[in-house]
Amino acid sequence: MTGGNLGDLTVTDNDSIINGTPSVSGKTLTFAFADEAGNVGKTATVAIPVTSTNYSDYTITATLTVSNKEAPVLTVQNITKTYDGTAVTAAAISGTATFLAVLYDCPQENP
């Protein structure tokens, strides 16, 4: 990871809703829920410590909640802008996202 390093995950799963052990590869957290209807509404957390080379260390905490709905698939593309000390304008942010086969466009300027 550029600018930082990931530490060991800390998983808090008091209700045993996670099947197996979560892991991180690159920028992606991978996990699987246990297939139990009684777990709906229950949560677990995954804490990911990050040691930074140019900022203070920090922790990313992901709260995982079991839902009784099928999760939609959202496909997006990275939007990148090199920070040069100036404010990022709306014109520097554009892209598209696909949600349940419907295409959404993020225009460069607000109407």
| Head-to-tail CA distance between termini | 36 Å
The helix content is under 10%
**Mean of all residue-level pLDDT scores:** 80
Number of DSSP strands? 9
- Using only CA atoms, what is the Rg? 18 Å
Give unreliable regions as ranges: none
Kindly describe this structure.
- With 111 residues, the chain is mainly β.
- The chain is flat, with a radius of gyration of 18 Å.
- The protein has two domains: 62 residues, no CATH class; 33 residues, no CATH class.
- Strands 1, 2, 5 and 6 form a four-stranded antiparallel sheet that branches. It has a three-stranded antiparallel sheet with strand order 7-8-9, with no helix packed on it.
- The chain has no helices and nine strands.
List keywords for this structure.
111 residues; 2 domains; four-stranded antiparallel beta sheet; 9 strands
Concise summary:
The protein has strands at residues 4-6, 10-12, 23-25, 28-30, 43-52, 58-65, 74-76, 95-99, 102-106. The model has no long low-confidence stretch (mean pLDDT 80). The chain is flat, with a radius of gyration of 18 Å.
SSE layout:
Elements: E1 4-6, E2 10-12, E3 23-25, E4 28-30, E5 43-52, E6 58-65, E7 74-76, E8 95-99, E9 102-106
Antiparallel strand pairs: 1-5, 2-5, 3-4, 5-6, 7-8, 8-9
